[in-house]
Write a structure and sequence with these properties.
By secondary structure, the chain is α+β, with helices and mostly antiparallel strands. The protein contains ten helices and ten strands. The chain has a five-stranded mixed β-sheet with strand order 3-4-2-1-5. A five-stranded mixed β-sheet has the order 6-7-8-9-10. α2 (66-74) packs across α8 (216-227). The protein starts with 10 loop residues before the first strand and ends in a 5-residue tail after the last strand.
Length: 328
C-alpha cells in the first residue's frame, strides 16, 4: 500500500455549527495522511439513509475532537472554515454551466469506475475458468485408459443411435461472431462526491486563525500525550475523556483510560477507587493528569528543567499519575 500523499497545507477544517463545537473533515486523502503521520484519529460519522442506525462500518465525514482541531490549528496544519457561511455565499455565485460541468465530471468518474469493475470481474472469471480447466486436465491424466473393446462398443452405439459416425469435431459448438459477443456500453455508476471540489473552493487562510474552544486542562493533557507519540480517541465507552493507544488502534489495544483535572482541583476518593477498579477490570491503567502550577519561592531543580521537554504545553509541565486497583 502506497503512503498517502501530503495535502496542501494548511487545509480547511469545517465547522458545521456556531452553537455546537463540531469540526469535520471530508477529504479521505487528508484523513489518511493525518492518521499515518500525525496520529489524528477522529470518529467516522457517515451513514446510509436506508440504514440510519448502523454503527459498525461508518464512513465519511470524519468528526474531530475539539482538542484535535485545536492542535491542528496550533501546529499550522489546518485552519477553521465556517461551513454554513461558506456554502451559502459561494453557491449563490455558481452559474448553470459550472453546475453542468460538475455533473458531467461525476458521470465520467462513474463510467471509469464501471469499466474498472467490469474489467476486474472479467479477470476473476478467466482466472477461475483456468483453474477449473487445470483441475479437469489433471483428473483426465490420472484416469486409467479404457480398453480398445470398450471404445469400439461406444463407437458402435453412437452409430446405431444417430445413423452416422459422430466425431468430436462435429460436436464442437462454433464460436459466435465478434459482433455477437460485443456487450452494451458500460452504464455509469452513481458517484456521490464527498467534497465540494472542484465546484467550490474553500476560502483562503487569511487573518488570525479561529481557535476551537477547548477545556484548558483536557487540551493540555491531550497535547502532552499526543506529543509523546500516543493515539487518542474519545473514551466515552469506558467513562473517561480519552482512550490512549501506544499505536494505531487498528493494531493495538488501549493502555490507559484518561481523565484531566486542574492542579488544585479536589478529586473525590470514590472517583479514584472507581476509576482504578474500572481500569484494572478492563486490563488498562486509569491515568489522571493536569498542568503543574509553579509555586513561588521554590528552588528550581531537575523538575523545572523537565517541564521544557517534549510532551509539555507552552513550557508548563504536565504531570500524570496512573492508578491501578490492588487486591487486599
Amino acid at each position: 500500500m502506497t503512503a498517502p500523499a501530503a495535502p496542501s497545507l494548511p487545509f480547511p477544517v469545517f465547522q458545521v455549527s456556531q452553537k455546537v463545537e463540531r469540526y469535520l473533515l471530508h477529504d479521505i486523502n487528508v484523513i489518511t495522511w493525518l492518521r499515518k503521520n500525525h496520529n489524528i484519529l477522529g470518529v467516522l460519522i457517515g451513514t446510509l439513509p436506508q440504514i440510519p442506525q448502523q454503527n459498525v462500518f461508518l464512513g465519511l465525514p470524519l468528526e474531530l475532537l475539539p482538542e484535535e482541531a485545536r492542535l491542528l490549528v496550533d501546529t499550522q496544519l489546518a485552519y477553521i472554515v465556517n461551513d454554513w457561511t461558506w456554502h451559502a455565499k459561494d453557491l449563490a455565485s455558481i452559474n448553470s454551466e459550472q453546475k453542468e460541468a460538475f455533473k458531467a465530471n461525476l458521470r465520467q468518474e462513474g463510467v471509469r469506475i464501471a469499466k474498472d469493475f467490469e474489467s476486474k470481474k472479467k479477470s476473476r472469471t478467466q482466472k477461475a475458468l483456468k483453474n477449473i480447466q487445470a483441475k479437469n486436465a489433471s483428473a483426465v491424466e490420472q484416469r486409467p485408459n479404457p480398453s480398445p473393446a470398450l471404445e469400439e462398443e461406444e463407437d458402435t452405439s453412437e452409430e446405431a443411435l444417430f445413423g452416422e459416425s459422430v466425431t468430436r469435431e462435429n460436436t464442437v459448438t462454433p464460436s459466435p461472431e465478434p459482433s455477437q459477443t460485443a456487450g452494451p456500453e458500460f452504464k455509469p455508476w452513481t458517484v456521490t462526491s464527498t467534497t465540494s471540489y472542484p465546484l467550490l473552493f474553500p476560502p483562503p487562510n487569511t487573518g488570525p486563525p479561529d481557535l476551537p474552544k477547548v477545556n484548558p486542562s483536557s487540551y493540555a493533557l491531550f497535547k502532552h500525550l499526543h506529543g509523546l507519540g500516543y493515539f487518542l480517541s474519545p473514551g466515552i465507552r469506558f467513562g473517561c475523556q480519552f482512550s490512549v493507544y501506544p499505536g494505531d488502534p487498528l493494531r493495538f489495544h488501549s493502555h490507559f483510560l484518561t481523565m484531566s483535572a486542574d492542579w488544585d482541583e479536589d478529586i473525590d476518593l470514590l472517583d479514584l477507587v472507581g476509576g482504578g477498579r474500572l481500569g484494572t477490570g478492563v486490563k488498562k491503567g486509569w491515568l489522571i493528569g493536569g498542568v503543574e502550577q509553579k509555586v513561588q519561592g521554590v528552588e528550581e531543580g531537575k523538575d523545572s528543567v523537565a517541564g521544557t521537554q517534549k510532551g509539555t504545553d507552552g513550557g508548563a509541565r504536565v504531570r500524570t499519575f496512573c492508578i491501578e486497583w490492588g487486591g487486599m
